[in-house]
Amino acid sequence: MTAMLSIHDLRLAFGEGPQSRTVLHGVSLEIARGEAFGLVGESGSGKTSVLRCLAGQYRHWQGEVLMAGEPYRGERSPAHARRAQMVFQDPYGSLHPRHTVRTALAEPLRVQGQTDRLDERIDEVLQQVGLPLHFRFRYPHQISGGQRQRVAIARALILKPPLLLLDEPTSALDVSVQAEILNLLAELRRQHGLTYLLVSHDLGVVAHLCDRVAVMQQGRIVETLTCDALCNDEAQHPYTQALVVAAQA
Amino acid sequence: MTIEPPLLTVRGLQVAYGTPVAPVPVVHGVSFDLGREKVAVVGESGSGKTTVGRALLRLLPRQARIDAEQLTFDGIDLRHARESDMEALRGRRLSMIMQDPKYSLNPVMSIGRQIGEAVQRGGQVSRAECAERVEALLARVHIREPRRVAGQYPHEVSGGMGQRVMIAMMLAQRPQLLIADEPTSALDVSVRQEVLALLDELVAEQGLALLFISHDLHLVRNFCDRVLVMYAGRIVETLAAADLAQARHPYTRGLMASLPSLRHRRAVLPVLQRDAAWSAA
Q1: B110 and B83 in one domain?
Q2: Is residue A21 part of a domain?
Q3: Which domain holds residue A119?
């Protein structure tokens, strides 16, 4: 079985010369096809930076990335968009306020030149994320936060990428709505064999959705373990143990 | 020993927007007492938690109409308090810390000057004394280099530090009641523990009454004494924080059940099934 995503010695720095500040000090991880992998850590630990490198938002990183067996060097090509898509934390900020749901969902297809069966594809993806079809005429301000996050997930899914990069997809939502979105993500992974790289500060969310988790601190992975081990208090690193204690508090 | 009357008594608090002819009520008859304790208000966004907190301090927009059968703070009837009376109470005896320090601090004023303003409100002091008090307050909230931080601007400090700066401003005067609106939800786990420890210290040492608005049930269960659960502008259940796991109301139980947990992993999280009767009581 080949890995869906393999990252070797990923390094990222901002600024030049003496002002330079390194935010990722050689991150390595491997995610199997169909696996859900969590990345936890505090703000500033570099977990979102890893996602941004993979999504092509940061392009000046160093290291080796293989996506579905092919090398990735930071390009933002149509082919890359079909391979990996990102879902952001804030559904209020990540949808264009003056675009209807339909326009937002049609955008990736237009960019890819896949404009035949446009409405059919939009209906299909709305159904997948559990939104009524008439929602395509709504604007983001006319729907709730949880529904907006569903639209963001639909937009990520419409190109049928095998890999989803999820950046705190539920932390802006109420717990009741969070449960719905987590169930949806678990169901979509089961149905379509998707691979997830999920960034979260909430260990409960990671343990619920993921098979394995890496704990980051100051730009380094300090520990990688299975979520079963995490839940059975088998974490070795003191920082991971502290996170577990805090999550149960 | 006589039983102390509660510091704050709220009976039948109503808040409505819209016109008098077509009012849109957002808080429907909320009643509770608050003594020298830590009471949490929990509920989903839109349930009216923040509106209740702001109504007590009369910090709602002008269009909001606040009505109550009783609204008493330390013997003062807040319903009939004039704006000048509220000015005298706000900050000095009744204080509020807001959710996001990024939006609540003045971005173009140094941290030292902002805290200094709060110090000066408590009574005019010399500049040197004010600076000294500011540093002492920053040290009080466990900021390591108070002199350096006093000279910084809000964008130069982290979220946790910004939150502590707001607590320092609140401490510049000695309020008896503090309304904390999601004071830790923007913070990382480790910083969150520090801020909570600090609030705990204040409740224990200064006999502060704390109304803690939060959506984090885990946190509230461990940190607070009592919990008021709000749904659609009503308090649907009041219970001891320790009993949250044994909550009776289906809404509270539904919220508790939908939390992913490290201890009890489930394939599918139960989703809240809302009942129209919850908002009709």
Answers
A1: no
A2: no
A3: 35-46+74-199
The answer to whether B95 and B170 have CB atoms below 8 angstroms apart is: yes
Q: Residue B269 is nearest to which of A43, A182, A247, comparing CB atoms?
A: A182
Domain boundary pick from B174, B192, B218: B174
Nearest CA in chain B to A185: B268
Q: Which domain does B85 fall in, by range?
A: 8-93+175-279
Which residues of chain A does B190 touch, with a Cβ-Cβ cutoff of 8 Å? 42, 242, 246
Residues of B with Cβ-Cβ distance to A42 under 8 angstroms: 188-190
A182/chain B closest Cα distance in angstroms:
8
So what's the ipTM on this one? 0.79
The whole-angstrom separation of Cα B79 and Cα B132 is: 38
Three-state DSSP class for A200? strand
| Side-chain half-sphere CA neighbours of B107 within 13 A | 4
pLDDT band at B4 (very low <50, low <70, confident <90, very high): confident
Residue A142 lies in a domain: yes
Based on the fold, state whether residues B263 and B191 are members of the same structural domain.
yes
Amino acid at A63: G
Picking from B240, B279, B275, the residue whose alpha carbon sits closest to that of residue B254 is: B275
* Residue from A143, A176, A199 to probe the interface with B (highest B Cβ count within 10 Å): A176
- pLDDT tens for each residue of A116-130: 999 999 999 999 999
Considering CB atoms only, which of A174, A207, A230 is closest to B260?
A: A207
Same domain, B198 and B275: yes
Q: How many CB pairs under 8 A join A and B?
A: 79
The lowest-confidence range among A30-44, B57-71, B107-121, B258-272 is B258-272
| Closest CB to A175 among B158, B259, B262 | B259
In a domain, B1, yes or no: no
CB B256 within 8 A of CB B264: no
B264 touches chain A (CB under 8 A): no
